[in-house]
Every structure is written in C-alpha cells, then in structure tokens.
Amino acid sequence: MSVYVITGVSKGIGFELVRQISEDTNTLVIGLVRDKAATEKKASLKQAAADTAQIIGDRGVDYLVANGAFPSHFDAYDPIGNLATKPQELEAVCSKLFQTNVVGNIHLFNLFLPSVMQGKVKKVIAISSGHADLDLINALEVENSALYAASKAAMNTIVAKFSAQYKRDGVLFVAVSPGVVEVGHYENVLPEQIEGLQRFMGKIAAYAPHFKGLTPVAEAVRTLRETWERLSIEGGFAGAFVSHFGNKQWL
Ligand SMILES: NC(=O)c1ccc[n+]([C@@H]2O[C@H](COP(=O)([O-])OP(=O)(O)OC[C@H]3O[C@@H](n4cnc5c(N)ncnc54)[C@H](OP(=O)(O)O)[C@@H]3O)[C@@H](O)[C@H]2O)c1
Q1: Catalytic residue list contains 152
Q2: 17 lines ligand 1 (CB under 6 A)
Q3: What ranges in the chain are assigned the alpha helix state H?
Q4: Which domain of life is it from (predicted)?
C-alpha cells in the first residue's frame, strides 16, 4: 500500500489528485485542507502531522505533495511596474505569498519528514509553476504574475535546500509544474484584466504553437502523476525544478 499526504485538496488540482489516487484501493490518501482560523494561529499543520501519524502508524508517508498555494490575482494580469500604484496591496500580497507558498511548505516538509523517512517511496513533490523559470520569463518577456512567480522561485530554492540535506537519506525532493490547467481561475476576470490575459495567452501561443488551451484538470493530474513516478534521485532529479513533462518544456 502507498500512503499519500496532499495539501490544498479543497478544489482544483489537489481535489483531482485525491479523486484519482483514491480510485486505487491499494492506496491511503490523506488530504489536508486549510482551516482558516487555525492557519492564523499557525497550529494547524502541526496538528495535521500528529493526526496523520496516528492514522498511518509505522507505515510512513510514501508521497508528500505540497500542492496548496495562494494563487494571487493582484499581479496576475499586469506588468510589475503597473503594481506601483498600489504599494500597500503589493506588500500585503507579497507577505501572503511568501508565508503561504514558501514558509508554509518549509513547515510542511519539516513536520512530515519523519513520516516520509519511514515510507518506502520517499518522494516529496512540490507543485511549482513554469512562471518561476528565468529562461522562460526572459525568452518570452512574461511580464505578468511577478509576485506569484517569485514565491514559486523561492519555493523551488527551498526544495533544493531540503534535497541537499536529505538526498543522502534517499528522499527525493522535487518541484514540478503542472502546466496551465483549467481550475476556474479565469472565470471572474474583470474587463480591465482581459488585455493582460490575452497578452499572456499570446506569448504562450508563440512558445507552444501546439497548445490548444487550458488542460482539463483530470488530464493534467494524470500527466503529473506519470511524470513524478519517473523522477528519481538516481535519474538526476534530486532538488530539480521540472515541467509536467519532466523537463524544461513548460507547455
Ligand atoms: N492551475 C494552473 O494552471 C496552475 C499552474 C501552475 C501552478 N499551479 C499550482 O498548482 C497548485 C494547485 O493550484 P490550483 O490550480 O489547483 O488552484 P486552486 O484551485 O485555487 O487550489 C489552490 C488550493 O490551495 C489552497 N490554498 C489557498 N490559499 C491557501 C493558504 N493560504 N494556505 C493553505 N492553503 C491554501 C486552496 O484552499 P482554499 O479552498 O481553502 O482556498 C486550494 O485547495 C498550486 O500550487 C498552484 O500554484 C497551478
């Protein structure tokens, strides 16, 4: 039996991961959803780790998937220079991004590592974003999502640092982008945001002419899982940041 712990399973990719993985009766899936009040008290993850240890006993965790994240909309459609008119919101969003997407995952990794060490597979997968790839930003001049991208880049660095420490114990830490996935993020785009969205989509089309639009979440999750099965320390992926294809092709 394989044991999975996955964060951010209330909706989107996390929800679909739990749905697909739990179809296999030979798996035990523990999905974590945030309790906003407890999150504010910073006690929820510690409790979740203790509760998980109770459920799984000495079986350990095979796959720890850091999926939950704050997908900021504030910076999603505008170049960074345009955010200057709202400095307070910029600061608040940066703090929330760093706290959720970086610090939250540091706590997650530290708290669950003893269970991962007990597991057989020993894979820690952080769901990242192609937005964090410097070569892609520079080649396509991707202006939007600067703050979100920076939080994911910081998370990728943290993943590499955990890998540097725990690779020798056989734990694979890896950051994987899921591609551009349909989870309803663009359902409430405001008229003034449409231009920025179209600019971004135009750049995607130039980068990947085969791209036919947002990937349905079920398909994206299947691809993601197939890829993380292939990733290993022996294959050279310890601490790496890769796409859903397991390479640097982001779409
Ligand atoms: N969809 C894409 O195209 C895409 C592309 C690149 C990367 N990603 C990454 O894929 C992962 C899943 O995102 P998604 O697309 O499925 O988005 P989503 O549908 O918005 O789901 C995000 C999940 O993260 C949780 N979350 C949000 N803020 C949180 C916080 N402050 N603390 C703890 N949990 C929080 C949400 O819980 P609540 O319901 O409580 O808010 C939700 O379960 C994220 O890491 C995202 O960055 C997605």
Answers
A1: yes
A2: no
A3: 12-21, 36-40, 44-56, 87-97, 104-118, 134-140, 146-166, 191-207, 217-230
A4: Eukaryota
148 counts as catalytic: yes
Domain at 2-242: CATH architecture: 3-Layer(aba) Sandwich (3.40)
Nearest C-alpha neighbor of 34 from the set 63, 2, 66, 60: 66
* 251 CB near ligand 1 (under 6 Å): no
Q: What is the mean pLDDT of residues 163-171?
A: 98
- Residue 68 CA to ligand 1 center (angstroms) comes to 5
Per-residue pLDDT band for 42 (boundaries 50, 70, 90) equals low
Looking up tokens 């890998």, which residue turns up? 163
Question: Is there an atom of ligand 1 within 6 Å of 172 CB?
Answer: no
167 catalytic per annotation = no
Cα separation values, 155 from 83, 130, 138, 161, Å: 22, 13, 20, 10
Q: Helices 87-97 and 146-166 meet at what angle, rounded to 10?
A: 20
Q: Is 177 in the pocket of ligand 1 (CB under 6 A)?
A: yes
